[in-house]
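pasting for ref
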Amino acid sequence: MPDIVVDYELLNQVAQKASSLKEQVKQARESNQNYTTEQVGGGGVSYAIQAYYEVWKGSFKRSEEKLEQLHNLYEGVARGWADWDFRLAGEAGKQEASLAADLYRTQKEIWDDWQEAVAKGYVDPNDPHAPKPPGERESQWTTTDGHGNTTTTTYEYGPDGKPTKITTTITTSSGLTSTDTTNYHPDGTYDSTATDVYGNVTTTTGNSQTTESGDHKNTKDTFTSTTKTPDGKQSTTTGTTTSDYNSTTGHRDSTTTYTTTGPDDDGKEQTVHGTTTSSLDVNGHEVIETIEVHEDGSGTRTVETDGRKEEWTSDHADQNSGWVTKEDD
């Protein structure tokens, strides 16, 4: 299957221009159409202007409707692709920052152990194979595509070197934006607030506990999220994530199981059960698979590999069988 490249920035710009043109047409249709001879002169000009608007007002109105449809279409497609891309970029930013923070802590522990060994006279401080100091801790990661579109992730740390706050902000030159702020507390609890490109606001509370064994760091995270749409609809998701991070290889595997209750596109209440598995290596290569199952057993399967997305549907998703590629269903 060929790769798909979508310029959602261009789509969003077209949507904005269509909306602007619609307002211009509307303004022309609703403007003053009764002019006096003093304003436009004699010779039937005033009557001609009124006749023009009378004949074309229906076309003006239809043009407004078409431009509104064009705006909605392009904006919907642009926001849909941007939302998916932003979620990937946001998670990638968090993962990159998290990996860097873990790597810094590991390097600092090695350096501190070496310094202690030097102080006790156990090792030669001039050993050419001595570890290097970790340097300054990074607290901000920013990526840009050179066209005014940026992703910025910032970290704040506590005295123990662990993160206390992570903020990810994504903006584009045409005004699409999303933001996510998470606060981490000493007892393992956390809370976050995220706003996506549609204006949906998601608040999350959870508890994350980590245990370490050798090179492996295992984390169990239980969470509850509530999402509110701009028109007042609300859905709730509860779930659990387990992850394993290898500090030697930089590899991270995780599995999330969750249940979401809330209205579907038609406003009908529904319950969806989902499972997401992900694998990320130190080079940033990532594979994410998500399977969601509806109450009737049907569902969807999505696989994202380094930003490339493939989708399937099935009437027997609860049995993990019968998958058909989405474009063929």
